[in-house]
Specification:
heterodimer, A: about 350 residues, alpha+beta, Rossmann fold, 2 domains, six-stranded mixed beta sheet, five-stranded mixed barrel, 20 strands, B: about 270 residues, mainly alpha, MetI-like fold, about 80% helix, globular
Chain lengths: ~350, ~270
């Protein structure tokens, strides 16, 4: 399967609103996706990420705003005319059709001649590495195989946009990673504009060019995985993307002071409208350093537990004031529960949030 | 704790044999008794004369009322199946896809006929049928309107059990995203996946209609059952023979329901291997 001229459409959501019987699922979402870009919509359950994707697909009618594909407003275009490919969270292969018949379905709807249909469907199955299972029915395939075939079925019609609605959530961990990488490889090869909904931050950061973090029906921040991780715009993003320790601090004059150290502030220098006062500093586990006890400038701490995570180790400690923190460090260090240690801050800036979280 | 069978577990071999044995005897004794009766010779001993009489060319004249009743019942079965497929099936699919909140209401409505005794139904239907007769005539097929209501609980359960096994909402959305219009979604995706439920509903409808007596009798219509009662007054042997044949027909229909789905799965597995 080779890239078609249709691939790589621009997608724009402008102030999209969606109401469900008084509850606003989308509260004016705006998002611009470049041709061939892979954007992940990330957020907790009920944040509106799936609703946004379904609004783009046409499966949900929006109550306001515009949805543009290649500059054309498709709000009034029915789902079957939007020329999108979609892979669903639950297994959606047609049980009465074989794998190849499933893949052919979209081509049949477009009245593609039989010979071309077969060739293209076989090509799409080869693309996902399942050409040898063309004659199998859904109940004879594993979950991962079913989702691969669903991906082939979505791609075979050469849609302008590919929408993936948590396609990996029903799979076991190993298959998830394999299929996640495969989706990214295929997307890069074909250059198709892709929106991927997930609640798994690791998944989003691993595959997407940009990640849009959603909260309560709107996009909190959109940026590259590195931007979201190192420079979260809001406390919510800082807390949702990656692990953060919540450490008591004082905000004053665009700077934050915690445990005697003064650091810069990432994102807005105001918390709850105030530029000064007590706040919580959100510090990444890798921005804390374990040092010998009573090291000058360190915070006295006692080890609670330590976990081996393969390439690194994460240790939980209680600081002298009772604050619980996690520190990420090399596996060669072996802190023991009950051991007294020192914790030092590294890095120049942290995110801050209100003391109520 | 060993030796204690968990709640909901399949019965053991002995329990299974006992259950099947008791149920088998319960069903077999009346049928064997009917068969034995149909073979009795009035002069003593057994004979096939009664069966031969039914299958002789002259029987079409002798037992004309039974054949008329059979024809009427088959016509009623076909019309009732059509009513179920044209009204109930699309309604259930529509509710499942677009109005899931109405599922309980539809279920309640469909279950009502089973709670109302046939005699009460007839009392209610009598004035209705005087209107039906004025509008659509008094042909036998009009009885299918009443039968359509009578079979609702059975047809509903058969289709609903299939609907609950298939995620029709996701399948319909997947088909729509692939470019299918609603007609294609229905014809190419939903109906093939509801085949088992539809066939079960149709066969159960046929079985119920072939066995229906009360409504036809009280509304003075001739169907298989009323004809058998009529014939039994002059020739009980023939009535029993026709009852046995009707039972066998219904039994074959129910066997077919079970077979069709399993055959399809076996074919699919053979094709894949």
């Amino acid at each position: 399967m080779t890239p078609s001229p249709n691939y790589g459409a621009t997608v724009e959501l402008i102030d999209v609103v969606k109401d469900y019987a008084g509850h606003q699922a989308l509260t004016g979402v705006s998002l611009s996706v470049r041709p061939g870009e892979f954007v992940a919509l990330l957020g907790p359950s009920g944040c509106g990420k799936t609703t946004a994707l379904r609004a783009l697909s046409g499966l949900e009618q929006v109550n306001g705003g515009s949805i543009l594909i290649d500059g054309v407003d498709v709000v009034d275009v029915p789902v079957n005319k939007r020329d999108i490919g979609m892979v669903f969270q639950s297994y959606s292969l047609f049980p009465h059709l074989t794998a190849i018949e499933n893949v052919e379905f979209g081509l049949r709807m477009r009245k593609i001649p039989t010979a071309e249909r077969r060739t293209r469907a076989a090509g799409a199955l080869d693309l996902v590495g399942l050409g040898h299972l063309a004659g199998r029915y859904a109940h004879q395939l594993s979950g991962g195989q079913q989702q691969r075939i669903a991906l082939a079925r979505a791609l075979v019609t050469r849609p302008r946009v590919l929408l993936l609605d948590e396609p990996l959530s029903a799979l076991d961990a190993k298959v998830r990673v394999q299929l996640r990488d495969e989706i990214r490889r295929i997307q890069t090869d074909l250059g198709i504009t892709t929106l991927f909904v997930t609640h798994d931050q690791e998944e989003a950061l691993a595959v997407a060019d940009r990640v849009a973090v959603m909260r309560e029906g709107n996009i909190e921040q959109i940026g590259s995985p590195e931007e979201l991780y190192t420079a979260p715009a809001t406390p919510f993003v800082a807390a949702f993307v990656g692990l953060s320790n919540r450490m008591p601090a004082t905000l004053s004059d665009r700077q934050v002071t915690l445990y005697g150290e003064t650091l810069g502030v990432l994102g807005s220098p105001r918390v709850n409208g105030r530029a000064n006062g007590p706040v919580l500093a959100l510090v990444r586990p890798e921005d804390l350093l374990l040092v010998p006890p009573a090291t000058p400038g360190s915070i006295a701490a006692t080890v609670v537990a330590s976990s081996f995570l393969g390439s690194l180790r994460r240790t939980r400690l209680t600081l002298w004031d009772g604050t619980l923190v996690s520190v990420q460090h090399a596996v060669s260090e072996h802190p023991q529960p009950g051991e007294s240690l020192g914790v030092r801050l590294r890095g120049n800036a942290v995110s801050v949030s209100g003391i109520d979280g | 704790m060993s030796g204690v069978r968990p709640v909901g577990a399949a019965p053991g071999r002995v329990a299974r044999t006992v259950i099947l044995g008791v149920v088998g005897i319960l069903f077999t004794i009346p049928i064997v008794a009917m068969l034995e009766f149909s073979l009795r010779n009035l002069a003593g001993g057994y004979t096939f004369a009664h069966w031969a009489g039914v299958f002789s060319p002259a029987s079409t004249v002798t037992y004309a009322v039974v054949f008329t009743g059979l024809r009427n019942s088959l016509l009623l079965a076909v019309v009732t199946v059509v009513i179920i497929l044209v009204i109930l099936l699309p309604t259930m699919i529509l509710v499942q896809l677009q109005f899931p909140r109405l599922r309980r209401v539809l279920e309640f409505i469909c279950i009502i006929p089973i709670t109302v005794p046939a005699i009460v139904v007839v009392v209610g239907l009598a004035p209705v049928y005087s209107v039906v007769a004025r509008l659509a005539g008094s042909s036998i097929w009009t009885l299918a309107f009443a039968y359509g209501v009578t079979v609702l609980p059975y047809a509903y359960r058969a289709i609903q059990s299939n609907l609950s096994l298939v995620d029709v909402v996701t399948l319909a959305e997947a088909a729509r995203s692939l470019g299918a219009g609603w007609a294609s979604v229905l014809w190419r995706v939903i109906l093939p996946n509801l085949r088992r439920g539809i066939l079960a509903a149709a066969f159960i409808t046929v079985a119920v209609v072939l066995g229906e007596f009360t409504i036809a009798s009280l509304l003075n219509r001739v169907n298989l059952q009323t004809a058998l009662v009529q014939v039994s007054k002059s020739d009980p042997f023939v009535a029993v023979i026709f009852s046995l044949l009707a039972l066998a027909f219904a039994f074959v229909l129910l066997l077919l329901i079970g077979r069709l789905a399993s055959d399809r799965r076996t074919r699919a597995q053979k094709k894949a291997s």
